[in-house]
Amino acid sequence: GYNVALFLSFVLSGFGAYLLTLRLTRSPAAGLAAGAIFAFSSYRMTNLAQAQLLTTQWMPFALLSLYLLLRTPRPRHLVTFVLFFWLQALSSFYYAILLALTVLAFLAFELIAWFWRRSKHRASDAERPIPAAPRRSSILYLLLAAGCLVLLILPFALPYFQVQQELGFERTLADNEPFSASLRQYLMVPPRSVVLGSLLPSDDTPIAGGYPVDALFPGLVALALALWGLVRGQGRTRWFFALLLLAAFVLSLGPRLYLAPGQPASLDLSLPYAWLYAIVPGFKALRAPGRFSVLAMLSLSVLAGFGLEALLRAKWLAGESKRARRIGLLLASCLVLAVVLESLVWPAANAEPVPVGDQVPPAYRWLAEQPASALLELPMAFTPGGPRLDCQYLSTYHWHTTPDGYSGFVPPKHGQIVYEMERFPSERSTSLLQALDVDYVLVHTDRYSTERWSEMDAALVQSGDLTLAEAFGPDQVYRLQSRTFDPGNLEIGGYLPARAVSDQPYTVYLIALNRGARSHATQPTDLIHATASWEMVGGQAGTSQESRIQADLPLVISPDGGAAVIPLPLAAPAIPGAYRLAIHEQDGPLGSWQVEAVVEVGEGQDDAFPAPAQLLAWTVSEKGRANEPVAVDLTWRALGKIDAYYSVYVKLLDDQGNAIASWDGQPQDGDAPTLLWAPGATIEDRVSLLVPAGTPAGEYTVEAGMYRADDLARVLTLDADGIPLERVVLGALQIEP
């Protein structure tokens, strides 16, 4: 079925362009040339690995139906327009947006052309009739078509809207740039081009997510015919395709001009794509502006058809003699053959055999017999042992849902799931799977190292949440016991920096401490929806304000005193002064809670912030001597996932609080950076603090803490009650004479 769809995309793309050009030029030869150019364009030949990008055939069919609907409104033209637009939308929402823009542009072109003709008409010229206004029936049919398309496409679009709302499905302009066309790509031919490969550049080096660079060279013959069609062609419609070609070319370049892939031009100028991104609905869901090239190729093919038709109208070919017809036929055949030859490419895609029928692994056939459920396969697609996209293909045999997969859009918290599953079947990972409502875990044991699988196997035997349902050689299916999550074991506190800059961003840190014996996990779509109230101390009128806060949650909070630090973004009031800030949420994912403090709003702000780390234990020598090292043993505990590199410091302070000796750096001399601390793990570290020569005898204080190296901001560690600490006093050191 896949191969049939791929093959028919070439046949139908060529046939659609043929019919469209035939209607516009009345020349079968022109239609044949246009069909060959469009079907075998460089854009299509370099996207053989993505069938949805090859399904371009419904565009010319839809435009042909629209053209007929505007000129001879008939129910059949309405039906075919709706049908072909709908088929194109279901093939690719990218192409649905491109086709919708093209339809709107064509309607605008027709309306402007009518106003232009009407303005040029002279009422005194009785021989020239007044240009007819757009037919009312055409307008009614267009409105009816729009309504039908909304009803037909909406059921397929609703899941996308849901993902956009729940997971923030949106592309940034920075996401667009790697997938924008460059000027060099329009000079590149597909890899293994037979005729032009030795004359023009070709590059199949993967970029941007592993996708090969699109070759977009339109073809020498196609360019020459299109230029001739623009100059000598007949009919105003060719001007629409010329404008569409120009617009599609510019939009394919994306928000910023690139001379070659990865080589931006030194121009501080936003291209029109960036303007449309800001104002046109749907553009923020697009990632690959380079796909506008398909409209450029379609426009070029139609213009080339106009060019061939203009050549065949030449005086020396316009006669009715057999000789003129033979020469015309020979010329048309040669040009079409030239188009085919310069498009000839040895396909660079590989045919990949996949299991079907009885070849499908038995684990998937067993899963197909089970009731609808949620399934996770391990290792996940993009982890050591992956990427393995065969799991996604084989999922079409059982159709169970999964929190893993492959798409051009990666949900924001997918990385957290991958991180936790690397430690499966840990208590945190099974708790997360229970929160995700996973029923089955399919473990491919042969994709793990022998040592890793031995660890997993021993832990699975002891797990009270997972039981072996079926084993199929290296594929083992485990059934996961369901569990509900109650935030009653969570203690919610907060760190509200004491100072804030007026009318500037201000961040509050919520601290969730888990006193329970099991991890607390949440759904990826769960969010904090809190209310923040600023009230100036003293109660001056007009100095209170209230705002809503929305913030992400960590997916898992470790048990037995584990903690999560959750930033809550706010904006400080514009009027300076002392404010009582109160933040609360009722019956949220963390239960009901409230934190408050007095904040001084003015010109300065605190840069300290808490992190889920605790100095669990320490040992300091009671005595020391000048010019000798003092050993300090530290035991850290990771209360949760730490997403940054933090430095540790140890200081020796005199009775005035001045540091006379210090040490700082990554734990274990860089072998245990905080970014790699696993939640719940303890990290042992020994620091050697050298007492400077000449240090007077007496009692000194030893303290420890953390800071962020790039800006020296203080990192507040947490104590056993989840209270942020600026520093931890380790004890007194007696320096002997």
Tell me what you see in this structure.
The longest helix is centred in the first third of the chain and has 32 residues, at 136-167. This protein is α+β, with helices and mostly antiparallel strands. Helix 2 packs parallel to helix 14 (322-343), helix 6 (75-91) packs across helix 7 and helix 6 (75-91) runs parallel beside helix 8 (136-167). It contains 19 helices and 29 strands.
What is the CA-atom radius of gyration, in angstroms?
34 Å
Strand fraction equals 15-25%
Gross morphology is elongated
The count of β-strands is 29
What's the tally of helices?
A: 19
Please describe the biggest sheet, giving its number of strands, its sense, and whether it closes into a barrel: 8 strands, mixed
> Uncertain spans, ≥5 residues at pLDDT below 50?
none
Report helical residue fraction. 25-40%
Mean pLDDT: 90
Detail the topology: elements first, then pairings.
Layout: H1 2-25, H2 28-39, H3 42-45, H4 51-54, H5 58-71, H6 75-91, H7 93-120, H8 136-167, H9 173-176, E1 206-207, E2 211-212, H10 220-232, H11 237-252, E3 258-260, E4 263-264, H12 272-279, H13 293-312, H14 322-343, H15 362-368, E5 375-378, H16 390-394, H17 414-421, H18 427-435, E6 440-444, H19 450-462, E7 466-472, E8 475-480, E9 490-495, E10 499-501, E11 505-514, E12 520-521, E13 527-536, E14 544-552, E15 556-557, E16 562-571, E17 577-588, E18 591-602, E19 609-610, E20 613-620, E21 623-625, E22 629-638, E23 647-653, E24 659-665, E25 682-690, E26 698-707, E27 714-718, E28 724-725, E29 728-736
Helix pairs in contact: 1-2, 1-5, 1-13, 2-13, 2-14, 5-6, 6-7, 6-8, 10-13, 11-13
